[in-house]
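call fold(seq) -> tokens
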Amino acid sequence: MNKIAEALIKRFENHRIIFWYDEKEELLDQYEDVTIPDVEKIHVQGNEFAVKHIINKQQPTGKFLLYFTGEKPANEDNWLLDMELAYHVFHTDQEAMFLQEMGLGYHLKELVTQHMEFFKAKERRLKLKEFLGDGDEHQAIRYKMLAITFGTDNISLVTYIHAHGSSYSDGNEKFDKDLERYNLRGYYWGEIKRKYNYQNDSPSIYDFLLEVFNTNFSLGKKTGIAKESRLLLSLWKDTIQYREYFGKLSEKIAKDIDVENKLNQATIDEVIVDDLFKLIDQKVIHDLVQLITSEGISNEKVIQLVKQRENKYWFGEAESLYQSIIYASQLIALVRKYGNTKYNSFDEGTKDYANNLYEIDQVYRKFIWSYRKTSQNKILADLALKVEKVYSNDWLLIYNNNWQGIVDKLPSWSNESTSSQSQFFNTHVKPVVDKKQRLFVIISDAFRYECGAELTKRLQSENRFEASISHMISSLPSYTQLGMASLLPHKELSLQEGTDSVIADGMSTSGIQGRTKVLETNSGVRATAVKAEDFMQMNSSKEGREFVKQYDLIYIYHNRIDKTGDDKTTENKVFEAVEEEFLFLHEIIKKIGNSLNGNNIVVTSDHGFIYQHNELAESDFSDSKHIGDIWKENRRFVIGKTLSNDTATKAFKGFELGIKSNVDVLITKSINRLRIKGAGSRFIHGGASLQEIVIPLVKITKVRQDTTTLVDIDIIKSTDRITTNILAVSFIQTDTVSEQVLPRSIRAIIRAEDGEDLSDQFRYNFDIEEGSERQREVKHRFQLSSKASGKYKNQRVQLVLEEPVEGTAKWKQYKEYYYTLNISFTNDFDDF
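ret:
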């Protein structure tokens, strides 16, 4: 079957009578070959009256193909004009065939002729047919032809420009060639001129975008480009398909319009809201580093400036740099406020550190971790040096020198207090198991107090988990064997002769076997010990549940931080180990709570640690003149018999530390280290500094009801009418963020009721933790598109607030606010 027959059969699906004019009799053979069931063919040759009688009187429901040769009669001479107008005319030239294939009228023949190269490909014709709507005419059809040319599903000039610019940034000229070949170039650039006022006799996509970027750059040269071009750039950054190409093109344009030189003359405040060039973030980061290093800016101002960059295009790439800046600023501010703190008593010091000053060690860890994530970027070199000096000299040294005065006055180390690590079992474990409640005790080696504080905060934001933290004081010396033994049920602890190994009531406390035996013997309940890795490998639904059923008390041990820090070759990665430990502990806790029905969990540690990232100075080491029968010598302590010491160490007898052995123990003062061959020196523990002896006691409960909610966001709405192309909106975070009230990320856009986006997007993470409602106000000026004052004028639109769908790249509606568009035509002028 030929194409003509196929086309005719399709037409007869909707028409009873079809007129076929073949003036030159070029298709007579095809006419004679056509056979269509239930269709009568009539070659009209001066018998119009008879044909009319047959069709209207004799066979009023029949289908007819009327074929005409010779010149088509004028309307006034056409006896069948009424029928022709009522039914369908079949054309057989190439343009007509294309139009008929797509269901378009013959009056569009000139459009097809003009863009014949476009219509020659069946694939393009079929795609265009999918896009066509009822009543589409020349303008709408050409617009949709552009969508096919640029390969976009979105029929929008903005999208075409995004696709064109993205292709150009890859060095691909296909779109330019296709526009020329399909004769769409003039139309395309005419539309850009009309919408953006781009004036150029030889337009090009790069020249156009160069002007757009320059016009919208805060320090750029203003051209005649329309203000709606701001929206073009804003939308580009928010598209998933094209946003990476925005970055590539931006970097090229930055060189061509000399952005770097302009930024050299600018202040941070002049460019802080600008989002066009990576160089802007580099400028902000550079200036902040200098200001913080010279202590020429407040911590509050630093946080405010970084927050303004948080929703910008380049922030993701620079996030670790910005985080490093924030933590450095916080650390310096905290040290300047608390660095010379002195205490009058042991309890005052430990409580103040646990309640407040642990944050200094926490932000130092976070700074080093973020700094290492930047590959120790050289832009931060001076700041890192500043942080190290402030932390080591103005905090660790001075604070612990002051604290050493308290330690020096101690006649003994308290092991009877309820806050003592030695009382852990009696104070925190026994009351739970005595109530016949199963308890999981997770002991993470060297998980110091500030780490426990962060874990607690993370767990408080985990729905259906309640978490609280208090502190304990580790045994002294603050090393693993003694700390682990102290956490076990026992009456007395002693040292194995000649070693630092600890005996509990005559039983070894080394390894899982030793600790299991102590638990089985002394706990009074069904108890065991297990390595965390072995516990996590158990299948929750079978093996894990069977294991848990056997016990009332399970001690789970993990050793990531201490193992990393104690090895000289890996000690510089100890803060990465802390981050990994957070994730691992979170997995264990969720497994216990969600899969094994464990409602009571405790996380604690054997000891803390001190870590300084930079290589140490000679002054950080002590030349101790101690002598005697040495059993164990560490950077921070010495154990032995008949030991004598000098001013470099503080001496204790074993019984003064709660150790039932005739031993002497020497503890180095402040943060000094002993010179020990082969040992690491930056990660240390064993001494009496607050960072080493204050350890976390995190209590976690799994509950059935929700424990968290997201902070609510509202807007200040003074009117329900939009009268200009700029709509200023004030967003209000109604409550402060807390342990149970979590931050909420939103994106907002003005959208027509038919789903058309009419403005740029605003993205923001509302995570404000303090201040009045007015201080929690965030403003954004929405730029509306020209459609707002054109196609959608006087219509109702929505300001839509959306939030992310967890675990996906999708967004869901959170809130909506309604406005009526009533924008005057004068708002479409640019400085006229």
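DSSP finds 31 helices and 31 strands in the chain.
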